[in-house]
């Protein structure tokens, strides 16, 4: 008698460590996933070296960012949009050992801005953002990417290069603001610089500090504000970059009395939207109020007087989001120049590194900001 023999083949994929979230629900885990469960984007094989933690990551982890979504057909999202990795195998113009950073927002493939590499101005709204919105991020052992989305990081910037991603968002924002101000027949000062222009930055997190550094490098006079006294590290930034500081715990009236109005105000807090109403009276004629932080509560309104004033005085309120490849490149130029211009601040930008193997600590810093923190870097080893 003959028997039929059935052979069961079970395909197994290698496992890799990854940090995952399940938006819109709060929570974060470090877990092992099958490599085939993760989104990949091209042929360049990259091993993760560092991830940065952004205020946006914490808003996702704490279930506060309504704009965060799972990838299609999946029940988890790999977190992380700030990453530096090393190319593992020569491919597509990259050599083994090259350091690269991924561009996090990727285009809809349809609109003209996305087709020319500027999904920061996507017209359909169908773009995706690694680790935030619709595709997996880079808090994982490795990923495959398309050279179009990779920025080379010079080895001399391996220490602070992780800041090129958040800084790219700021470079794009300042480029946009300077373009907006081209509407004013003369916005430069008597000597052709921007030294007479005053900017107010609300919030002293990494975003507030990077805005300050770029604006000081661009020549504007800057006030940073937070509702407390500056930390020791913030004090070093303030002194070295010759920036002013305002404690806003009692509101902004005193600042208006002592300094007057501002040409540029940026909300870099990610706090309550009520802040916007508080600072609108400080915005000067022909001024720009940039909304950069994602408020997590509240609302703001403008009464008819404030609206009349905005009309009479050509005021602009603008949403500012996301940098693309040219802005990553400009960010690297600034990071390199600050090593010379602001050496003490430059050394203080990374406040701490945490090993991915110290899982308890990684989860802690993903949930909550530390006192005195600027940027925490997760190191994959
Ligand atoms: P962060 O580390 O949480 O920093 C927020 C800062 O704002 C902290 O210094 C905080 O003070 C301060 N703050 C909170 N409430 C305040 C208030 N009422 N008045 C003044 N200051 C206040 O966050 P981050 O990484 O710098 O990011 C800031 C925001 O930008 C987040 O919402 C993030 O999602 C967003 N973001 C947007 C983009 C974009 O493309 N638009 C890009 C990156 C990030 P303490 O230090 O005392 O807590
Ligand atoms: C990222 C930006 C992104 C924005 C909106 C930020 O944290 O750094 O590149 O466009 O969040 O999701
Ligand atoms: Zn970010
Ligand atoms: Zn688009």
UniProtKB/TrEMBL annotation:
Where on this chain does substrate bind? 56, 104, 129, 165, 169, 322
Single GO BP term: galactose catabolic process via D-galactonate
Keywords, comma-separated and alphabetical: Carbohydrate metabolism, Metal-binding, NAD, NADP, Nucleotide-binding, Oxidoreductase, Zinc
Classification via CDD domains:
glucose_DH
InterPro entries to which the protein is assigned, alphabetical: ADH-like_N, Glc_1-DH_arc, Glu_dehyd_C, GroES-like_sf, NAD(P)-bd_dom_sf, Zn_alcohol_dh
Query: What does the record give as the reaction this protein catalyses?
Result: D-glucose + NAD(+) = D-glucono-1,5-lactone + NADH + H(+); D-glucose + NADP(+) = D-glucono-1,5-lactone + NADPH + H(+)
**Enzyme Commission code:** 1.1.1.47
Alphabetical list of Pfam families matching this protein: ADH_N, Glu_dehyd_C
Specify the Glucose dehydrogenase C-terminal domain's residue ranges: 159-364
CC cofactor: Zn(2+)
**Kind of enzyme, top EC level?**
oxidoreductase
In this chain the Alcohol dehydrogenase-like N-terminal domain maps to 42-155
Binding residue positions for NADP(+): 204-207, 226-228, 292-294, 320-322, 369
**Gene3D superfamilies documented for this protein:** Medium-chain alcohol dehydrogenases, catalytic domain (3.90.180.10), NAD(P)-binding Rossmann-like Domain (3.40.50.720)
Recorded GO molecular functions are: D-glucose binding; galactose 1-dehydrogenase (NADP+) activity; galactose binding; glucose 1-dehydrogenase [NAD(P)+] activity; NAD+ binding; NADP+ binding; zinc ion binding
Tell me its family: Belongs to the zinc-containing alcohol dehydrogenase family. Glucose 1-dehydrogenase subfamily.
Role description: Catalyzes the NAD(P)(+)-dependent oxidation of D-glucose to D-gluconate via gluconolactone. Can utilize both NAD(+) and NADP(+) as electron acceptor. Is involved in the degradation of glucose through a non-phosphorylative variant of the Entner-Doudoroff pathway.
Q: Which HAMAP family match?
A: Glucose_DH
Q: What is this protein called?
A: Glucose 1-dehydrogenase
Tell me the organism. Answer: Saccharolobus caldissimus
Organism taxonomic ancestry: Archaea, Thermoproteota, Thermoprotei, Sulfolobales, Sulfolobaceae
């Amino acid at each position: 008698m003959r028997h039929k023999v059935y052979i069961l083949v079970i395909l197994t994929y290698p496992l890799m460590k990854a940090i995952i979230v399940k938006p819109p629900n709060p929570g974060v885990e470090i877990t092992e996933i099958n490599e085939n469960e993760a989104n990949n984007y091209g042929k360049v094989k990259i091993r993760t070296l560092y991830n940065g933690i952004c205020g946006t990551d914490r808003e996702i982890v704490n279930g506060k960012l309504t704009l965060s979504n799972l990838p299609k057909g999946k029940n988890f999202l790999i977190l992380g949009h700030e990453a530096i990795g090393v190319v593992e195998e020569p491919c597509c113009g990259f050599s083994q050992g090259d350091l690269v950073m991924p561009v996090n927002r990727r285009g809809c493939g349809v609109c003209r801005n996305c087709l020319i590499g500027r999904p920061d101005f996507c017209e359909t709204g169908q773009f995706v953002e690694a680790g935030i919105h619709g595709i997996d991020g880079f808090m994982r052992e490795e990923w495959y990417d398309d050279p179009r989305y990779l920025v080379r990081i010079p080895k001399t910037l391996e220490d602070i290069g992780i800041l090129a991603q958040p800084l790219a968002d700021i470079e794009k924002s300042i480029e946009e603001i300077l373009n907006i101000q081209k509407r004013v027949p003369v916005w430069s000062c008597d000597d052709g610089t921007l030294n007479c222009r005053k900017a107010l930055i609300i919030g002293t997190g990494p975003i507030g500090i990077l805005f300050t550094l770029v604006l000081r490098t661009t020549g504007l006079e800057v006030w940073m504000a937070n509702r407390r006294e500056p930390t020791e590290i913030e004090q070093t930034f303030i002194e070295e970059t010759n920036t002013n500081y305002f404690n806003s715990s009692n509101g902004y009236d005193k600042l208006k009395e002592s300094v007057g109005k501002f040409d540029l105000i940026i909300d870099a807090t990610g706090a309550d939207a009520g802040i916007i109403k508080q600072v609108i009276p400080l915005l000067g004629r022909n001024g720009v109020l940039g909304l950069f932080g994602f408020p997590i509560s509240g609302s703001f309104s403008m009464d008819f007087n404030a609206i009349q004033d905005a009309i009479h005085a050509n005021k602009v309120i603008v949403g500012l989001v996301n940098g693309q490849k040219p802005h990553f490149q400009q960010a690297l130029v600034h990071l390199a120049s600050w090593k010379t211009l602001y050496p003490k601040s430059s050394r203080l930008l990374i406040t701490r590194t945490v090993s991915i193997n110290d899982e308890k600590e990684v989860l802690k810093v993903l949930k909550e900001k530390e006192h005195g923190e600027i940027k925490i870097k997760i190191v994959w080893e």
